[in-house]
Write a structure and sequence with these properties.
Length: 364
């Protein structure tokens, strides 16, 4: 565990990746707490914390700013829940050339969909907020709990996917350089799309193509600055001050996804420092005497209740051994400099500082 402690002491940013449901948020909070207890002014940036965990940490999920975590004894720990819409709005305000353009975009229905619902927006805004907070130099250490997705690589691809959607060449393809009869002309407006648009407008009451046209026209005025900001934000993932962990669980599909994620990291020149193997089933420790007693048992003489207890014990042991083999096979496919840390399964949910401290006892 010295490797983990060294990273927490020396790095400035830690990105925690992995698919949804593997325990990223809890581990992100635990590692941030450990860094704070090491004396570093630490911020954990999360997306969707469990309600009980947010309540215990004293987080107001509606506040888009770092909030001090109260604990006894005190430690320099802050937490923040990312608000995707507000982060995107702030970017528009920063780069739009005028208040008029800002107001047009923020009130545009296409933009509102893009900022709140489009796939990849949440991942990109998490990266943008990490970059913004890093630039302020207000914290010694920032932990980013990446957005929950079905596939962890979505976080890596989201910035490119979003900028490709907003790409200047794409906009030029959509937009004609002229206006006809005072109306905005779009190459997209073929006779077929006009019919489709009319149907949509009749059903939804929204002027979809007109909204799209106005959004693209407004965006053209500052797209280059937006794109440059995106490129800068992407660089922090491969920065020497950034450490990257993947959280997974010893289940075949999840382990394969973790390997795919690691390969994508390599392709983007991002080094993965550690794998946190979460919720591992531990073998039941037996003393030599207990092992001898188990071996001497005559299963044929078991009562029904004894047989049930024995079957449960065997199932548990079989699961532990199966996971052990999965982990060994997984490790053999990793680069030798990637450390794997096993974290046992806890029967109780971890939702407070006490639970995070207990978790850290197993990690460190």
């Amino acid at each position: 565990m010295k490797h983990l402690l060294k990273l927490l002491k020396e790095k400035k940013m830690l990105v925690i990746g992995g698919t949804g449901g593997v325990g990223k948020t809890t581990l992100s909070c635990a590692l941030a707490l450990k860094a704070a207890k090491l004396g570093r002014k630490t911020l954990v940036l999360t997306i969707d914390p469990a309600k009980r965990l947010a309540t215990t940490l004293g987080l107001d999920i509606k506040r888009d700013e770092p909030q001090k975590v109260k604990m006894d004894p005190p430690a320099p720990l802050w937490a923040m829940v990312l608000n995707t819409q507000k982060t995107f709005d702030a970017l528009i305000r920063k780069y739009a050339p005028s208040q008029e353009i800002t107001d047009k975009i923020l009130s545009n229905r296409i933009y509102q969909y893009l900022a709140s619902s489009m796939a990849g927006t949440e991942e990109y805004m998490a990266l943008e907020k990490l970059y913004e907070l890093h630039e302020t130099k207000a914290f010694d250490f920032i932990v980013l709990d990446t957005p929950p997705t079905q596939h962890a690589v979505s976080f890596l691809n989201a910035p490119d996917r979003l900028t490709n959607f907003l790409d200047e060449n794409t906009m030029k393809w959509f937009l004609k350089p002229s206006f006809k009869a005072g109306k905005l002309g779009l190459k997209l407006f073929s006779s077929g799309s006009k019919i489709f648009s009319k149907v949509l407008e009749r059903v939804t009451g929204l002027k979809i193509l007109q909204d799209l046209a106005e959004f693209l026209i407004s965006l053209q005025t500052f797209y280059q600055g937006f794109k440059e900001r995106t490129q800068k934000a992407k660089t922090i993932l491969s920065h020497t001050d950034t450490s990257f962990f993947i959280v997974t669980h010893p289940e075949t599909t999840l382990l394969q996804q973790a390997l795919t994620f690691q390969e994508h990291l390599l392709q983007k020149n991002i080094h993965m420092d550690a794998i946190l193997m979460n919720r591992v089933t531990s073998t039941i420790p037996l003393s030599p005497e207990e092992k001898d007693e188990m071996d001497a048992l005559d299963i044929q003489k078991f009562s029904k209740s004894d047989q049930m207890v024995f079957d449960i014990f065997q199932s548990y042991e079989n699961l532990a051994q199966s996971e052990k083999k999965e982990i060994q096979a997984f490790q053999e496919q990793l680069p030798k400099d990637v450390h794997v840390f096993e974290i046992p399964f806890f029967e109780e949910d971890i939702y407070d500082i006490k639970g995070l401290n207990r978790l850290n006892l197993h990690i460190f």
